[in-house]
Amino acid sequence: MGDASADRAMRSFLASIQVGDVRSGVVAAIARSEVAIARSEVAVTLDGFADRPLGVVGPLDVSWQRRRADAAVVGQRITAEVLSVDVEEGRVCLSMAATENPELWAFLKRLRYGQRLTGTVATIESFGVFVTLDEGPDHPVYPGVGFITYPELSWRRFEAVSEVVEVGQPVYCEFLQFDTWNGEARLSLRATQPDPFLWFVDDIAVGQRLTGQVTKVLPFGVFVRVAEDVEGLVHLPELSADPGRAPEDVVQVGEELTVVVTDIDRERRRLSLSLRQA
Fold first, then answer.
1. Phi, psi (5° rounding) for residue 169?
2. Mean of pLDDT over the chain
3. pTM, entire model
4. Alpha helices (H) along 133-242
């Protein structure tokens, strides 16, 4: 009966909690990661239920400003927002970052996939581009709330980011997701532009001959530009009737080729070509 009574009490307590509620409690334990000590799961004894810790703050939801092991310590009182409630597991997922930066958290939560946002390129890093948004609060750590990874900058391949954007440039982007680990709005610049690949392949078919210029020679094949911002790949077996020949012995960068379309993968945006069949 004791266990059944405790289970009913737990379920009753959890039923009173809603996603979005702000709850307080005391850090009961911290499970350190063997890989990265800063990525630790925090167990929390919530106010109103002292029998055992029901609250859990995941490693991505502890803090946007502090990435150290002392972002939370045993015995510390915390306030966090409820992300989810699992009655069967007896688990309440919490975010301390939400209450650490409530204005920014509320702003990011309001954004929806596909929403268009404007801003200015703040900095260009080796891992992506930070964007200062025209609307919304500043970020407590980074130079901009918006962030664009390199693949989301443009539909076409580029060697340097300066070919696409530069610091101080106004940009019009599409919202992809709320990155709760960094407190960022992940954005896409290319999503606001027509996809040249899909536009091009709508007018071609497997077996069709195309003319293009070799843009890159690699051990597994060569890339051929068959239209502006559209490239296809000639895999090594389709490059020559002699399988022993290296790609650089068959074609050179800048060479004009006539190729045959062997496959069109719209979902993965891949165009397969054959020089041998041409």
1. -80, 130
2. 90
3. 0.71
4. 196-201
